[in-house]
Design a protein that fits this description.
Helix 8 runs antiparallel to helix 9 and helix 15 runs antiparallel to helix 16. This protein is 75% helix and 6% strand. Strands 2-1-3 form a 3-stranded antiparallel beta sheet. It is mainly alpha-helical.
């Protein structure tokens, strides 16, 4: 059997890539055809490419795009294996079934690796931990708790609920941001084309016909000239600046500064805070519901909250909880939650329903996030439209002024 790597179009039009084993090229094409894949490239795979796929990493070059594994695919994997385990199917058999039916070649290969590790005697959580880019500390910790408690199907179901809810919130926020982002990109592309392609030719004609141009026309002419002549340097400078900013934000000090600053941003700050608090409450509630004790659950949330400032506050909460305090007491001192929310958590602890109260708090904070995001977008979108309109309007005025001046000179 030979290995061939392919790049193909799936039935839904998605670009996929992967490895296929067959006797020869013709057999490989027939095998892909039976999978409803239409290959645009098919070639013998080198040993390096095979190692890349076995390691779960996309091979370098043009095949990397098709090998990405999305959050949605990880969520679907979690839901499917939860259903299989609930049906009393063993973990290795469930993994083999998912590996055979998966659409993404990279995910199929990783699932096969996890199944192989489980067959060799490793715990399911240990096998998952070998792929930290796909399965977070929260994910692995919940699986480990499910294994220890003998309730892995239930924990997987809770985990799938958590991931699906997070995906839904992200999709709603992305959908709200899509319109202003489109307006901004459209305006930027339009203004750039006008300044670099259209206006230089037009202004060349105007300069020949008029000895003195109006001030707005001169300003636009100089701007267009600079962009037309030095666009390569400007683009390189912008890319270098973006790279520098990205490097700074990835550093410890830069990341901490940005996490602190974005919570204080006008208008956007409350939305960031609601997102962080909602994630804190839903993750902690899901962990407690799955049987994780409070202190280890707080440590897991601290590592997965996604904001260093909030993580430091959660660490303080965990330290005070270690000393015997309830969860509500340190939260009340921090002042990040409202009094009503802290009271709900306090009642949850007293009644033994902390997980339910935390999930209710998460629902409240996510509702606040949606409301604040919509309010922010309703404020930003008109401003962007106004800004783009003002730029285009200035260009129109700058173009029309010399034309009116020539018209009056002829009369």
């Amino acid at each position: 059997m030979k290995s061939f790597r392919y790049q193909a179009i799936g039935a839904g039009g998605a670009l996929v890539a992967g490895l296929v084993e067959a006797e020869d090229r013709k057999a490989a094409l027939q095998l892909l055809s039976r999978q409803n894949l239409f290959p645009s490239l098919l070639e013998a795979a080198t040993q390096e490419v095979q190692k890349d796929f076995q390691a779960g990493e996309p091979p370098a070059g043009r095949f990397s795009l098709g090998q990405r594994i999305s959050r949605r695919e990880v969520t679907a994997f979690t839901r499917e294996i939860s259903a299989l385990l609930t049906a009393s199917i063993s973990i290795p058999q469930a993994l083999d079934s998912l590996a055979d039916e998966g659409e993404n070649p990279a995910l199929r290969e990783i699932v096969r690796q996890i199944g192989g590790a489980v067959r060799k005697g490793e715990a399911f959580s240990a096998a998952l931990s070998q792929h930290p880019k796909l399965f977070s500390k929260l994910y692995v910790s919940m699986i480990r708790v499910g294994e220890e408690a003998g309730a892995l199907p239930k924990v997987l179901n809770d985990l799938a609920d958590l991931l699906e809810h997070e995906d839904q919130v992200r999709q709603e926020v992305a959908a709200a941001v899509a319109y202003p982002a489109f307006v901004l990109c459209f305006g930027f592309v339009t203004v750039t084309i006008l300044l670099t392609v259209v206006l230089p030719r037009l202004f060349g004609m105007l300069e020949e016909m008029l000895p003195v141009l109006p001030l707005p026309t001169l300003v636009l002419l100089k701007t267009s000239h600079v962009l037309h002549q030095y666009w390569v340097l400007i683009l390189a400078g912008a890319m270098a600046a973006a790279g520098l900013v990205r490097w700074l934000l990835k550093s410890d000090q830069g990341a901490e500064w940005w996490d602190k600053y974005k919570l204080r941003l006008p208008f956007a700050g409350p939305a960031y805070q609601s997102a962080a608090l909602g994630r804190f409450a839903r993750t902690l509630g899901t962990l407690v519901k799955s049987g994780v004790s409070l202190l280890p659950a707080l440590k897991i949330v601290e590592q997965t909250i996604g904001n260093r400032v909030m993580a430091a506050q959660i660490a303080r909460v965990a330290e005070e909880t270690r000393g015997g305090d309830s969860l509500a007491a340190p939260l009340r001192k921090l002042g990040v939650f409202s009094r009503s929310v802290v009271q709900m958590i306090d009642v949850g602890e007293e009644t033994g329903k902390l997980d339910e109260m935390l999930l209710r708090v998460a629902t409240m904070e996510e509702r606040h996030l949606r409301t604040r995001t919509k309010t922010l977008i309703s404020f930003i979108a008109p401003l962007l439209i106004l800004a783009v309109g003002a730029m285009v309007g200035f260009m129109v005025i700058a173009i029309l002024l010399p034309i009116f001046k020539m018209s009056s000179a002829l009369h």
